[in-house]
Amino acid sequence: MRIALLKADYVNEDLLADHGDLPDMFGRFFGCSSSLAATADDVCSLISYDVRFGAFPTPGSYDVCIITGSRHSVNDDHNWIKTLIAFIRNRQAVGDAFVGFCFGHQLLAKAFGGTIGPGVIGWNVGLWPVDIRERCLWMAPESGTFQALFNHREQVLLPPPGARLLASDTSCPVQMFSLGDRVLGVQFHPEYTLTYQQAIMAVPESLSKAAFEDAKHRNATQPRGDGILRDWVKRFTALTKTQAAV
Q: Alpha-carbon distance 216 to 96, whole Å?
């Protein structure tokens, strides 16, 4: 699996030594090499492109584009966000596969006609249950409900027209969606470690102490299950390649 990581944020300098940057987190999660020398024989390779500064992959050089999370809102009036949306629309129209996490999930929804705004509970942080509502062929091993790591204030309020709602919960009505067979949105952060999520959770002044302590308690007591996305994204990507070859 050749991943083009569309990097939409950065890790604060004081956290880099302990946690690495976003490409490091995704590389560890998927078990990828992150080298320009990666070949088609590698089980998984990852090359990062900082889309905030106009860096984009060459078409045909990847099997899937993964869009990272971000401290920015998809509704911000930044030129790089508009350029990224245009890239997504143009490349998806010719059959490229996209997976988005958190900001990336919301951006995919916005790019194809969905609505994004503040969630009803404000900050949604820590481990929460993901409730699978519709199964797909790539969801192997199967899981009906699992605990996943969230860290967001905005969310998809209305998915794009024609999207399939794959997972939902009262705290986040659109936890996962797909559009056709080449677009997958995931609101949570399987690439984050618990220690990194708790470090960035401590930053927003708008997050109450009660919400912070509640999330820390859930993180310490709930069994985490979002590692299943490692297999699911790989199978999703493999299926898109198979379908493209038909």
A: 38
Nearest to 52 by CA among 8, 101, 90, 86: 8
Active-site annotation, residues:
102, 189, 191
Instruction: Residue 163: name the closest of 120, 100, 225, 117 by CA.
Output: 100
Q: Cα–chain-centroid distance for residue 178?
A: 12
pLDDT tens profile 5-21: 999 999 999 999 999 99
Of 142 and 35, which is predicted with more confidence? 142
Contacts of 202 (CB under 8 A, 6+ apart): 212
Q: Look at phi and psi of residue 102 and say left if phi exceeds 0, alpha if psi is from -120 to 50, else beta.
A: left
Phi, psi of 211 (to 5 degrees): -65, -40
